[in-house]
Amino acid sequence: MFSARGYRVVVALEVVALVAGGACLSAAGHTEYAIAWFAAVVGIHFLGFGRLFWPGFYVLGTAVLGAGVAGAGAGLAGAGSDAIRAVAGLGTAASMFAAGCWTVVAWRLGQGE
Predict the structure, then answer these.
(1) Tell me, what DSSP letter sits at residue 2?
(2) Which domain holds residue 60?
(3) Which residues contact 102 (CB under 8 A, 6 or more apart)?
(4) From CA 85, how far away is CA 100, in angstroms rounded?
(5) In angstroms, rounded to a whole number, what is the distance separating the alpha carbons of residues 81 and 96?
């Protein structure tokens, strides 16, 4: 996967989106939404990986994208920056942790242990 051209393209687009979005949020004076933006971009990057490499990435991508959207939604509903960070950050962390646990358990079951 890491040596595939598609991987490099998706990651390059992700980096550009992260930097450009972060710069735009900073210029607009809304850095409190940076974590929500980063989560959304990372979620989209996993959706791209789902198309290119393994359908399981669709689940992770949807969860991480959802955490970013939920964090932004919390901010737009009037919640402060701590709430945006909590919703987007903890939602992303929980999604990544669950995906990692699932991967380890699936690998262990495949090993006959």
Answers:
(1) T
(2) 5-110
(3) none
(4) 22
(5) 22
- Pull the structure tokens for residue 13: 């687009």
**Span 74-91, average pLDDT:** 98
pTM listed for this prediction: 0.91
DSSP letter string, 40-100: HHHHHHHHHHHHHT-THHHHHHHHHHHHHHHHHHHHHTT--HHHHHHHHHHHHHHHHHHHH
Task: Calculate mean pLDDT across residues 57-66.
Answer: 97
Nearest one of 46, 48, 87 to 68, comparing CA atoms: 87
pLDDT for residue 80: 96
Domain count, the chain: 1
Q: What is the pLDDT of residue 40?
A: 98
